[in-house]
Every structure is written in structure tokens, then in C-alpha cells.
Amino acid sequence: xxxxxxxxxxxxxxxxxxxxxxxxxxxxxxxxxxxxxxxxxxxxxxxxxxxxxxxxxxxxxxxxxxxxxxxxxxxxxxxxxxxxxxxxxxxxxxxxxxxxxxxxxxxxxxxxxxxxxxxxxxxxxxxxxxxxxxxxxxxxxxxxxxxxxxxxxxxxxxxxxxxxxxxxxxxx
Amino acid sequence: xxxxxxxxxxxxxxxxxxxxxxxxxxxxxxxxxxxxxxxxxxxxxxxxxxxxxxxxxxxxxxxxxxxxxxxxxxxxxxxxxxxxxxxxxxxxxxxxxxxxxxxxxxxxxxxxxxxxxxxxxxxxxxxxxxxxxxxxxxxxxxxxxxxxxxxxxxxxxxxxxxxxxxxxxxxxxxxxxxxxxxxxxxxxxxxxxxxxxxxxxxxxxxxxxxxxxxxxxxxxxxxxxxxxxxxxxxxxxxxxxxxxxxxxxxxxxxxxxxxxxxxxxxxxxxxxxxxxxxxxxxxxxxxxxxxxxxxxxxxxxxxxxxxxxxxxxxxxxxxxxxxxxxxxxxxxxxxxxxxxxxxxxxxxxxx
Lengths: 172, 351
Ligand SMILES: [Zn+2]
Ligand SMILES: [Zn+2]
Description:
Bound molecules: zinc ion
Low-confidence stretches of chain A: 41-62, 125-129, 167-172
Shape of chain B: globular
CATH superfamily of the largest domain in chain B: Glutamine synthetase/guanido kinase, catalytic domain
Distance between the termini of chain B: 26 Å
Oligomer: heterodimer
Number of strands of chain A: 2
CATH topology of the largest domain in chain B: Creatine Kinase, Chain A, domain 2
Shape of chain A: flat
Helix content of chain A: 40-55%
Order of helices and strands of chain B: EHEHHEEEHEEEHHEEHHHHH
Number of helices of chain A: 8
Strand content of chain B: 15-25%
Radius of gyration of chain B: 21 Å
Strand content of chain A: 5-15%
Strand order of the largest sheet of chain B: 2-3-4-5-1-8-10-9
Largest sheet of chain A: 2 strands, antiparallel
């Protein structure tokens, strides 16, 4: 283990890369010295996405009543929470509602965020469909405002505007 | 040869190819691993009908994996449009692709649909724009699983949101030789771009080839993800070019020696492993990229890169090969290729 460059005693666990004049320099510090230098220490597996399965396992072990949690299943496809924990795979799109809380906290951990800010989608086939979509969006918008989730509310409003506007160029 | 191996895209002195993919699922079906064989057939039929029929998709061709033997499946994986996951599944699955093998859709892989675009050189923005348009068209014919908060729903939550994964395949011999790979790739990872081995998840690094990919699929828009990856990759490219300049200034003779020795081995060896081929061809690649070597082109090396892989090699030989036979066949293929190449060049010069 390399010792910390600052205190020379604790092992260096924080590796900081700085780029100036197109030269990369690396400093190796222990967590305490890094914090003293005002560097935010964020524990993240280097380079790769942390395996989702492992993350949930850690959470579930800490939580009391883990066995009961594991036995929960999606009412639609019957995938058990334990199965998801072991493989990292969900069984169907409805699983996202059934395990909503667990998935949201996991996504926040992996991405630092659990709100989708990219493309919006609504099926534009029949106008009947668009009508149904609008009603659903109206309900979701009211919910979002009720929970003071204003970022989501703004995204939903954009989607509704896109749906109501006549479609011209095939884009939202 | 698939266009992503042409060796002449933008920044082709460092970048081999760019790949962009979008994960999409149908709202009213279970994900492929969970779905019954019957349901998978439904999904396959629904999506391939939508893709081959919809205007704006050009002329698409569907390849059902169920009708192919293992070697034919592996062959398509090596060509880049199919994934290994697709070969290990069962039931109805496959790819629907355009005539140039540039844009395609994998059906019933980990997700119902994986839209993929790949081409030579650094072309993130261009390929994203193309895939975005294809996604819009396909999306009107199918019913995607989408949630206003979580975005596009995928089998693994880590892909949910945009469902976007961009990958740039790069050759970094300069950074490797100057021992600056770790700091540069570490800096890239801090800026949201992860490094993976070129040959898939479980293989060790070979031939100084790497794959740079975005980490998060959520939290920013697709174009922000693409722009960020593009900016980070461009910085990595600059570091690589600086490193090569330094080597050329300090150790030109040593580098030339390494290139010539590698050429000698490739032309004379009687047995070649895939690893060996990639390490030796990495030296030739630097030689071409730095104008120190002109006995073959990047396109030649790319073509060989594909031909030396097991399924292509077996196809060339017309039979299944034992590991020992593979090494011998590989060396002989490489030498036949270079000999034919030299003859063609001579003919060009004379005529
Ligand atoms: Zn210290
Ligand atoms: Zn489910």
C-alpha cells in the first residue's frame, strides 16, 4: 500500500488527478488529509459502474426484516425481490412500480440522480391514445406539484405541450 | 467488410470506431429472460414487422438467430452488430439491420430492443443523430415502456433513463509506452467516461486497444451525455498524440525497431495466438499512424483483426478447428493476406 503523500503514515486511498498544461499529475492521499485539503471524498468503485446487485445486497443486509423484503414479488410477472437482488435483472416494466422505492434509491446511488432528463415519449398512433396520455399526464402533474417535485413537473408540462401541439416534423 | 473497419473515419490515427446504442422495451411484455418462448416469439414478430415495414428505416433485413448454427452466430458477433448475449439465449431472437451493417436492432437480447449504430472513426454526434431519428420512427410503430420520472424502462435499472450507451474504441500505444495510461484513464473516469477492455467484459487488455464508454444513463439529456463523452474522448486523443510526439522525439529508433521486429514475426511465425496477433499488430498500427511504416494500411490491419477471430478463421478454413490448428491457420492466413496484398500493390504500380 502506498503511504499518504501528506502525512506519510496512513495508507493512501484517495487518488486525485489534476490536469494543467495538458499534463496529468496524480496525488495520493489518505481520506483524512484529503478532507483537510477540502476535497470531497466520494466512495465509488473506480472506472466501472458498481454492480447493482451488490449495492442492494449491502442495503438489504443492513435493513431489519430483510427476509420479508426478499419475499416480495411483482404482482404482474411474479419476479421476487430476492431474484432481482441476485441477478440485477427486473422481470417486466411493471416491476419499476412494484419495487419503486428500492429502485429509486439505487438509481440515485449509481447515477447521482433518479430523474430522467432526456427524450420524452408518448405513443402517437391514434388520437384516442393521445387523449388517454394527456389525462394520465395531468394526474401525474398534479401529483408532482403536490409533492413539490418541481423539476419533474416542468418536464411533464413540456411533454403535455408536445402532445397538444400538432405534429409537424416527426420530433417532439 | 463492415464500414466500421474501413480505417478512415475522423481521428482515425487514434480512434478505430464509434458505437452508439439505445435500450428499449415494449410496455406490455415481460423482459426477454422472464418471458415465455411464446411471448418472445410475439415480441420478435412485432418488432421485426415494425422495422422492416416502417418507412424511413430504409431497407432492413431480419436475421433470425434460431435458424443459424453456433459458428454463424459467432461470425455476426465478430462483425459487431450482434452481442455474445444474443448467442447464448434461446427462443426467437436476432438482428434486423440495414444493408451496410451500419445500423441495426438486436431483438430479445437483454432488452426487447437494442438499437445500435456503428462506424469508423470518432462520430458520436453523427451516429447519435441517426439513432435518435430511427428511435422516433420505430417508437411510433411500437409501444415503448416509458415512465415520466424514470424514463425508458430497461431490464437492468442501471440502463434505465436514456437507455443510451456510447462507446469509442481507441488505440493508445503512446500512453502505454510512456506509462501514462493510468492517470489519463483515471481522469477520464472522474469525468464520467469509463474504460473497458476492447474484447468484452472478461478479457484482459490486449494490443493497447480500449473501449471508452459513458457511465451514467440518467440525470442528463442524451445530447449532454454525447457531448460530454465526445469532449472527454477528445482530451484522451490529445494526450495520446502528445505521448507519441514525445516517443518520436526521444526514441524514434527504438520504436522503429519494435515495428520492424513485429512485422518480421507476423511474416515468419508458424503459430499465432489472438493475443500475439493483437500485440504485434499494435506496433504496426503505431507505425502506420506515425508514418514510420507503409507495408500495409490500417484498413488491412482492421480486416485482419476480424479475420483472425475464431469464427471468421473457421469460416476461412471451411471447418471447425482445434486450438492448435487455430494457431497454425492464423499464422498462415496473416501471411497469405500480406503476400496477396504485396502482389496487388506491385500490379497497381506497374499498371
Ligand atoms: Zn494523510
Ligand atoms: Zn414485474
